[in-house]
Amino acid sequence: MTRNEIEFYNNNVPAIRRALERIADALENNNLTAQEAHNVKHAFTGIDGADIQDKYANKAVDRILDNGIDFQVNETFKAEEQEELDTHHDYLHGLVQDLDNDAYHEFCNAHCLPASDAVAVSNYITDLDYDEVLGIINDLEVANEDAIPDTGGAPYDDDYDLRCTAKMYASEIHPASDIRTKKDAILDYVTNEFGSHGARYTDIIKFAYYLNDSNAPKFGYDNRGYYAMGMSGRNPYLVHGGKDYLVKGINKEGNERYFALSFVESVTDYWKKVV
């Protein structure tokens, strides 16, 4: 469900419910006036009598007719909205982890956070609401674009090496090889590229993006949602299912990172499944 649909249901379903309850009571008591009957009949038509094709309104009415006036729709929509927010939180965590030392301290100063307290920084990010987290993500991505070095007019792509690696892995995917699926490629990449250090959230979804198309436009804000679904969506296939998948573990530096299940116990005794 899109954010527009979620907002429509959260804001308008209670009003629709109350209106239908009034209509139901009036019909049951058979006391509609001629004007009220006219209003009910044309509730979803324009002045010219044509139907109003509002997909959100139509869906709301369909759900009410199918499930009854008393269905608890808001709980479902709030859960989906929270899932989307969690995806943005995860992405922002990755962006902050990618910052160099100076940029990280600048971020902490801007948000009045103790740079030495990683837990406080993490909790701050997790507590951001939808607009706040999108605003900070945008600020960091703009700052990253401004930091691109002068190449004397030549095209610059700081993801070039990653594109090449993804292209190499894509060429190796084959039913008869050790890498039969994109999931296998991602797990192998995490193990061989990051080893005992483990991979960050952003490392994984960026690689997944270029694995799908190594010539795609530069990975950014508009691309993260779809590829993040493999980590935290309704079917997070990268973190469960099959014999091998991603888990979270604590590396030797004391940082939480992602590892393949088949590899993590050779690195740390402190690990957990994501789902």
Describe this structure in words.
By secondary structure, this protein is mostly helical. The protein folds into 3 domains: 69 residues, no CATH class; 68 residues; 114 residues, no CATH class. It is 60% helix and 5% strand. It contains 12 helices and 3 strands; from the N terminus they run αααααααααααββαβ. Strands 2-1-3 form a 3-stranded antiparallel sheet. The chain is extended and about 75 Å long. The chain starts with a helix and ends with a strand. About 2% of the residues have low confidence.
In short:
The chain is 60% helix and 5% strand.
Write the layout of secondary structure elements.
Elements: H1 3-29, H2 34-41, H3 55-67, H4 73-98, H5 101-110, H6 118-126, H7 130-146, H8 160-172, H9 182-194, H10 201-212, H11 221-232, E1 246-250, E2 256-260, H12 261-264, E3 271-273
Antiparallel strand pairs: 1-2, 1-3
Helix pairs in contact: 1-3, 1-4, 4-7, 4-11, 8-10, 9-10, 10-11
